[in-house]
Amino acid sequence: MSNLELQQLVEKISYTFFNKPFQHRAYFNQRLQTTGGRYHLRSHDIDINPKMADSIPNLTGIIKHELVHYHLHLAGYSGKHNTPEFKHLLQQVGGSRYAPRLTKNYRYCYQCSDCGRQYNRQRRLNVTKYVCSRCRGRLVLLPAAKF
Ligand SMILES: [Zn+2]
Ligand SMILES: [Zn+2]
């Protein structure tokens, strides 16, 4: 899905579910790692994690969630999650309760045997080659259950 298609989808959802136009920018942001989407209070733009485009129901839920922030904020409300206005409007349009958080798939956790600093990695580290970047201590692999 392109940025243009995302923009059109956000505009369409805004008209269909909120009866109001979306007049700012929506775009994919590769740098979003663990968040599904964000609404920017200053620019009023919405950016979306490109991974969300894999599932249209998920994507729609996130767009609705961010549009609740958008329309409440433009109407003079705080647009924070814990307000009655937020909960009510979100329920009305059927948006995701939470902008879904994506957990990175870390398979290995290493801990420095000297200072205790932890390093999460998706791949195995060669511990004879890599040492703690803070204290140069030896790294040990923790059992999976510990993190
Ligand atoms: Zn939110
Ligand atoms: Zn260390």
Describe this structure as you would to a colleague.
There is one protein chain. With 147 residues, the protein is α+β, with helices and mostly antiparallel strands. The protein has two domains: 3-93, 2-Layer Sandwich (Zincin-like), CATH 3.30.2010.10; 108-146. Helix content is 31%, strand content 14%. Strands 1-3-2 form a three-stranded mixed β-sheet. It is elongated and about 60 Å long. The structure holds zinc ion (ZN) (2 copies). The site of one zinc ion has 8 residues, from loops. One zinc ion binds next to helix 2.
Sum up the structure in keywords.
three-stranded mixed β-sheet, 3 helices, alpha+beta, Zincin-like, Putative metallopeptidase (Zinc) SprT family, 147 residues, 2 domains, SprT-like_domain, three-stranded antiparallel β-sheet, SprT_Zn_ribbon
